[in-house]
Specification:
The strands form ten sheets. Strands 17, 23, 27, 29, 30, 31, 32 and 33 form an eight-stranded mixed β-sheet that branches. The protein has a six-stranded antiparallel β-sheet with strand order 11-10-7-6-3-12, with no helix packed on it. Strands 15, 16, 19, 22 and 28 form a five-stranded mixed β-sheet that branches. Among the domains are: 128 residues, Trefoil (Acidic Fibroblast Growth Factor, subunit A), CATH 2.80.10.50; 306 residues, Alpha-Beta Complex (Cathepsin B, Chain A), CATH 3.90.70. α7 crosses α8 and α8 runs antiparallel to α9. The N terminus is likely disordered. The radius of gyration is 35 Å and the shape is elongated. By secondary structure, it is an alpha+beta fold.
């Protein structure tokens, strides 16, 4: 039967079983219109039932046999009547067809006797027309989308769509159909069954029928690992909301890019909420690693706060464990930490602290003391002790630990970390050490109150002022102020605390005043093609105070020009050096990274000590390096390189790999000029341990 008899639009089609002489052009067949014409004509021309049935069979055969990712480049179509095919469908049947533009099409053809067409039932609502895009091999998950700009979750009412929802609201629960290969998603409200779509005016809307291309989004990952949703039908149209949670037009993305960024929070298993985002190292590091992250199997995690151990499967863990059997002592354990969504800043610092032996021993000793005393009051230090104890008591030497209890406690105690945004590793280190010290001081005060002792002060900084000749009667007002340091001292200060002497010399009366300041880490400026020794020398360089920065001298009773310098008076057991790699640049109106090449030696001796320093010849060995990978403080990733028993290992969240000490040079930074705001893997926090411990 000629195809033009069906009244179809004049359009050249592709020959199914033959060849066409003309070049095919990109035209999609309108299957719904075609099937409607077949139904109408089969009722009117009931004499041509056999031909109509054969035509239906050819259409089905045509749609089914197309590859799932093939569009329909058609220029000519000729239906060849195949009565044998029609006879095979003389009984009732139901067929699901998956093709680029036809999905979930249920068709019932009843043929009886001489293949007379009794009825053809077609669910036209389930047939996708030519503009629709299916999701091949899709997976359905339940998500909540956290918007960075509003600080709330995307929620869908019957008609309204905004980003004002709370985390536990049922309106924020979204059913997301994800294409495993193309990165395309459909977002549907679980409660109201409506799909999130864009209309022709690039306004967000909700529809019950989400089969249209306007309801399909392409999921993209930004530089800082946030999720961005771009319309599949209109390129450049991203979904965004302002600070009040109202819809933001896609044209505003260049001005406020963070308003178009989301964080996926999966309801079923929060461990997998960022599965699919590669938090691993750069290509240069990944090519060197023996344990590839792509081969790493996600462990089966039981989400209970008391349980830390995970069953690590696969050949990667066993391979590293075999390598460490003979070379490392039996009591050494190397466990990666699961990333709970941008918690690499926390994982990297914890790994570095764990391999600082004095600190680890103090934390484990605190765990045993609390267990003997029966004091199991949960705090951040106890959660850290439980994590260290869980790692050190594992039967296997290599594996993965989920620090869920510690992360949960951290978010409860500080709202700064109660989100899925990237945080600064140095800020977290300062917060952790100060919080641990405060917990120990509070326990000391509690013991003093119980024993009837005096209340301990809360300040822990000692200020001393000494001057040369000319003080006279003013010496009594500037006498040394010494707090009760023994009562305020903890083992955190024993391990990390050092003392700086700030010396200021008046150029008028030659009077020298000094002030002591305690520190837990030193922050030093960085320059291109320098070393840590040079940075420390610049840190203690003499600075002249003049003009509006003049120094007020108590002897001269006026502002005078002076010289100021910093010297190290007391050297700590663990020297933590923070490289100030992030600088505010007015040109970009934000902080950018200084990817300068800064050499840090494996052995270090400090030369910027004061004349009265205690043990000024102390030697340090590099034991851990927190490395920042990326271009800005909020865009990037943190990894840790540690030294254990003379061997170096790389910790990248749950990935652990052995590396050569020569590869430490890869983390010095970039040697080329113009390394401002460049992607690099550069050392950010250095941990040096004294040899005389």
């Amino acid at each position: 039967l000629p195809f033009s008899w069906f009244g179809y639009r004049t359009m050249p089609f592709w020959v199914l079983n033959g060849h066409s002489e003309q070049q095919p052009r990109e035209t999609a067949i309108d299957c719904r219109y075609l099937l409607r014409q077949i139904i109408k004509l089969s009722v009117v021309f009931y004499i041509a039932v056999n031909a109509a049935a054969a035509a239906v069979m050819d259409v089905i055969h045509f749609c089914v046999n197309l590859p799932p990712t093939t569009k329909l480049p058609l220029t000519f179509l000729s239906f060849q009547t195949d009565f044998s095919m029609a006879l095979n469908f003389c009984t009732n049947f139901s067929l699901n067809i998956t093709a680029p533009y036809v999905t979930n099409m249920s068709m019932t053809v009843c043929l009886a006797g001489t293949c007379f067409l009794n009825k053809i039932n077609i669910n036209m609502n389930s047939i996708q027309i030519a503009e629709e895009i299916p999701l091949q091999n899709h997976v359905t998950r339940l998500y909540r989308l956290y918007n960075r700009c509003s600080g709330r979750y995307l929620q869908m009412y019957v008609k309204a769509i905004n980003a004002r929802g709370k985390s536990k609201s049922p309106l924020t629960l979204l059913k997301v159909e994800t294409d495993c290969y193309g990165g395309r998603v459909r977002i549907q409200s679980k409660k109201f069954r409506k799909y999130l779509c864009f209309n022709r005016k690039l306004r967000v809307t909700a529809r019950y029928n989400g089969r249209s291309e306007n309801c399909v989004f392409v999921e993209r990952i930004s530089e800082n690992f946030y999720t961005e949703l771009e319309s599949a039908s209109q390129k450049g149209a991203f979904l965004g909301f302002n600070s009040r949670g109202l819809f933001l037009h896609p044209t505003m993305r260049s001005r406020e890019p963070h308003c178009f960024q989301f964080i996926k929070e999966e309801q079923i298993n929060p461990i997998e909420e960022f599965r699919g985002i590669d938090y691993g190292p750069s290509r240069r590091i990944r090519s060197r690693a023996k344990w590839k992250k792509k081969n790493h199997t996600q462990p089966n995690i039981t989400l209970t706060p008391q349980l830390f151990e995970l069953q690590e499967t696969g050949q990667n863990a066993s391979h590293l464990e075999k390598e460490t059997t003979d070379e490392f002592p039996a009591n050494d354990h190397f466990y990666g930490l699961v990333n709970f969504g941008n918690t690499c800043y926390c994982n990297s610092v914890i790994q570095a602290l764990y391999f600082c032996r004095p600190f680890r021993e103090k934390v484990l000793n605190y765990k045993s003391q609390m267990k003997k005393a029966g004091n199991q009051k949960e705090n951040l230090l106890l959660c850290l002790a439980d994590l260290f104890h869980s790692i050190s008591t594992q039967k296997r030497r290599v594996g993965t630990i989920a620090p869920k209890k510690f992360i949960g406690r951290l978010k409860k105690e500080n709202d700064l970390f109660d989100n899925y945004m990237q945080q600064d590793a140095h800020e977290f280190l300062n917060y952790l050490l100060n919080t641990v010290a405060d917990i120990l001081l509070e326990e000391k005060r509690h013991e003093k109150r119980i024993s009837g002792g005096h209340k301990v002060g809360s300040k822990g900084t000692t200020d001393t002022v000494s001057q040369t000749d000319g003080f006279g009667d003013n010496a009594s007002s500037n006498q040394t102020q010494v707090k009760d340091k023994l009562a305020e001292h903890t083992w955190v200060h024993d391990v990390f605390q050092g003392t700086l002497t700030n010396e200021t010399r008046c150029l008028n009366c030659e009077t020298v005043s000094s002030k002591d300041e305690d520190f837990l880490d030193l922050s030093v400026d960085v320059q291109q093609n320098t070393s840590i020794t040079h940075c420390l020398r610049e840190f203690s360089a003499t600075e002249t105070l003049c003009n509006e920065h003049k120094y007020y001298c108590d002897i001269c009773c006026s502002k005078q020009e002076a010289q100021k310098r910093m010297r190290i008076k007391k050297l700590p057991l663990i020297l933590a050096l923070h490289l100030k790699r992030f600088k505010y640049v007015e040109q970009y109106n934000r902080y950018t990274k200084l990817s300068y090449r800064v050499l840090f030696p494996l052995e270090l001796r400090l030369f910027n000590t004061s004349h009265d320093a205690v043990n000024p010849d102390r030697m340090y060995d590099l034991v851990a390096v927190v490395v920042h990978c990326g271009s800005t403080p909020n865009r990037g990733h943190y990894i840790t390189v540690v030294k254990s028993q003379g061997f170096w290992l790389l910790f990248d969240d749950d990935v652990v790999d052995k590396m050569d000490h020569i590869n430490i040079e890869d983390f010095f930074g970039m040697a080329a000029d113009g390394s401002l705001q460049k992607n690099s893997e550069s050392g950010y926090i250095l941990f040096y341990q004294a040899r005389d411990i």
